[in-house]
Amino acid sequence: MERLPPNFRKGKKYPVLFDIYGGPGSQRTEKTFRRTVDFSAYLGSDPELEYIGLKFRTMVAGQLGKLEAEDQVWAAREYGKRDYVDAKRIAIWGWSFGGYLTGKVLELDSGAFSLGIMTAPVTDWRFYDSIYTERYMKSPTANRAGYNVSAISKTSGFKNVAGGFLIQHGTGDDNVHFQHAAVLVDTLVYEGVSPEKMQVQWFTDSSHDIDSDGASSFLHKQLAKALHHEKRRTPEGNHQWSRRRVEGGPMP
Questions:
Q1: Is 208 a catalytic residue?
Q2: Catalytic: 96?
Q3: What domains does the chain contain, in order, with CATH numbers?
């Protein structure tokens, strides 16, 4: 589903937000988008791809995250060909499996997306509950290679994404345990991902919904802020908040 700004003008290029989930068997067609984002400035797209037939539905078995991420990159590149889309400013955001898929998209280092936001993401299926995971991945001993490939572990895409990325997670997550985000951030820091690229936000004691003690409001404001900064990012790759002086003003 595509949502155009109410003041949409032909000839103007707009940044885009992909709001994704992408888990096995999921399909979303929504008539509404979250009101946190200023859609007078952003286009909204919810590109859940529909497949028909058992063959297509089972292609992800044993390799979660691979084909789904490639689909999102393909969709972004196709979408970027539209004359009203700013192809250099396409953001992607997801929660839970959507957060995982956002990470797998960034891992591809495709350049199709300029900003990634991962909320409560799975990062390694060995950390998730077996009743869900083994339905699609078999056991870790029976599919060791598949688990290795499905984990978010390659860091070059995180280093190169033009507008950087944001990871959000509740420390009391009862579904996707906090371990997922903690291990990924540890890997990214160890591999030398720049703090100019990476932002991390923990929500103390918050569950998977991240809705305790004002956390939900903070989370969505942080999302909106990240999108606003991406919209204003300069060609040199710097966001407005990281620039050393205001345009036209003196150096400090």
A1: yes
A2: yes
A3: 2-242 (3.40.50.1820)
